[in-house]
Design goal:
- This protein is α+β, with helices and mostly antiparallel strands.
- The strands form 2 sheets. It has a 4-stranded antiparallel beta sheet with strand order 1-4-7-2. Strands 3-6-5 form a 3-stranded antiparallel beta sheet.
- Helices cover 21% and strands 22% of the residues.
- The chain has 3 helices and 7 strands, in the order βββαββαββα.
- The protein has a single domain, classed as Rifampin ADP-ribosyltransferase domain (ADP-ribosylation fold).
């Protein structure tokens, strides 16, 4: 089966983070199969997470939904793999330490002391995403 996570997953020990606008509590599970926070909002086959606060910050800032961005420390409940949307296409070697899984992520705690990107950096990213959209490029599979 192509694109299936391996049984052992990457060797990254974490901690792991997930950025979103959702208001979650410790112990809740984030699961794939719901509308994606990015792109056209189609059903997500994976749930995405990272081992860097910077990458999680993008999720908190760019995710759809009402309310403020939030970052949660999470733990995978099953195997995971490098996020091919980033590692194969943009950042060989996975320096963003970005991953995806078909299994739930368990919320451990909310990270309260993260710093947002500057307004200029955020606007640059928004412009870049708008250009990708104009070109018909979908960031999330």
């Amino acid at each position: 089966m192509e694109n299936q996570p391996t049984a052992s997953g990457p060797e990254d020990p974490g901690p792991f983070y997930h950025g979103t606008k959702a208001d979650l509590k410790p112990g809740e599970l984030l699961k794939p199969g719901y509308t994606s926070n990015f792109g056209t909002g189609k059903k997500a086959n994976h749930i995405y997470f990272t081992a860097t606060l910077d990458a999680a910050t993008w999720g908190a800032e760019l995710g759809v939904g009402e309310g403020r961005g939030r970052i949660y420390q999470v733990e995978p409940t099953g195997p995971f793999e490098d996020d091919p949307n980033l590692t194969d296409q943009r950042f060989p070697g996975n320096p963003t330490r970005s991953y995806r899984t078909r299994d739930p992520l368990r919320v451990v705690d909310e990270v309260l002391d993260w710093q947002p990107h500057s307004p200029e950096v955020l606007q640059h990213m928004l412009n870049h995403l708008e250009e990708l959209k104009r070109q018909g490029i979908e960031a999330i599979d």
